[in-house]
Amino acid sequence: MNKMKRWLFLVFTLIFSAAIFAGCGSDKADNSTLKVGVTNFADSLEPTENYFGWVVMRYGMGEALAKFDEKMNVQPWLAESWKISDDHMTWTFKIRDGVKFSNGKDLTAEAVKASIERAFAKNKRAETFFKYKEIKADGQNLIITTEKPEPNMPGFLADPLFLIVDTSAEGERDFAKQGPICTGPYVCESFTKEKAVMKKNPHYWDGEVPYETVEIPSIDDPNTRAMALQSGEVDMAVNIGAGDIGLFNDTSKFHVDRIASLRVVLARINQKGVLGDPKVRAAFISMCDRKSYNEIILKGTFIEGKAPIPPSMDYGFDKLTDPNHYDVERAKKLLDEAGWKDTDGDGIRDKDGKPLSVDFVVYNSRAELPIYAEAVQADAKKVGIDVKIKSVDYNLIDKMGINGEYDLLISNITTANTGDPEIFLNWYWRTNKDGDNPQNGSGYSNPALDAKFAELSTEFDKAKRRQLMIDIQQIIMNDGAGLFLGYPETNIISSTKITGATMYPSDYYWVTNKIRPAK
To answer: Among 23, 87, 168, 211, which is most buried by a count of CB atoms within 10 Å?
Structure first.
C-alpha cells in the first residue's frame, strides 16, 4: 500500500511539473502579463463581506482614503489631506481632484460618502472602528462627525473594509462575481477562488499601469507556490514558506523582500468551556514549549510568542512579564489543583467522569497553523490533556470566532492594520456587551481591562496611548486570555525579470503599478 502511495505521488509530481514547464514557454519575459502566485481566502470580491476587501486591495483594484508606508505611518491616498476640529469630533478629508473610477466616472466627495455608508450598511464590523453622527459632502470635502473623539480616524479609513467603490455601478455589475468598480490600477476581468484575471484600468490616476493583464492563480500549498515561482510559472509569489526560502538565494534570478511582520499567531481561548477555569487555562499555556516551536520546528523564521503585540512594534514587549511562561511542572500542579487527575490510567486526566479534552480549530491556508496545533497537541499529551485538532475552511473562522464554536481557535492576525494595535486588542478582548463587540465570542470579560479600553479610545497623546496598550497587554497575559504562539516574518519573492515587488507591513498592497518589467 505504501509503495502504491509513493508511486502515485511520483506520477502526480511528474505530471504537475510537466504542466508547469509546458506553461513556461521561453525564458523571455512577457511584458504584457504579470503572473502572481498567492493564497486566497475570498469566495467573492464583495469588499464588505467577511475580510474580502483585503483581496480587492491586494489584487490592485481597491484604494482607500489613506494608506500605510513601510513604517506604518498613515499617508494620503484618495484623500490628499485631512484635519480635525478643535473639539476632536469632526474630521474633514479633502478628496483628491482628477481621480476617476475604472468606469470613467469622477471620484467625488459625494461618491466617497456613499461608499463609506455602504460599508456601514453591509458589515457590522464597521461600527467597531468608529460610529458617526453625520457624514456629508461639501464640494470635494468629506466631513465626518463622530459620536466620540477618534484619535486614529485616518488609520481606520485605510482599512480595506473602507476602500472606495462606485456605488452607482451596482445595478450594472455584480460586485461579488465581477469585482467592484474602484480606482486602482487594475480592474477585474474574471474571478473564481482558484484564479483571478485583472486588466489595466484605462482611467488610472496615479501614473502608468505597466501590464495589460495580471493573472493571479491561488496556490494555497506553499510548497507548490514555491515550485511555481522556481519554474517561472509565476513572476512573483507572496509568503513563501519558511522551509523553501533558501531555494531563492540566487540573486541573479530572484529578489527576496522579507520583513518582520505585524502579525501574531494566536489561539483564542473560549472562556465558556473547560478552559474557562483560570487554572486550567494557565496550565495549558504553561505547558506549551513556544521556544522550541519557533526555533526548531519552524527553523527560526518565527519569533517565540509571549504577548498580543509583536516585538516588531514599540509597545513594551521586553517589559511585559509572561506569568504563564513554559513550565511543565507548574502546568501539572495547576491541573492537580483544579481537580483533574488521571483516575483510570489512560494518560488523560479526568474529573467527574469526563476526560480533559479540548477542540483546537485550525485552517490550512497558512502552513504554520496546523504545525503549531500539532506541536501543542504533543505537549498537551505530556501533561494529560487530550487535544483534538479540527481543520475547517478559512471562511468559517470568522463565524466560529464570533459564535464561540471552539475551545481554541488559531489564526494568523495583523495586529496593527489601522496603524496602531487599538482595534486588534479591542476586538478580541473588550467585553461584548449586547453584541456591540461581536469579534469577542470567547466570553472573556474584565472590567479593569474595559476601563483601560475606554480611556484609550479618546486619548490622543501618543506616549499615553502607548502606555495604555502596554497595560492592556499585561492584563490579557495575567488572565491567560490568549495563547500567543509566535510572530512570523512575511515576504514577497519575485523574479529579477520584474522590479518593484515590495512587501509592506500592513500586508494590503501586493499588486501595484510600481511592479513592472525589468529594463
So the answer is: 211
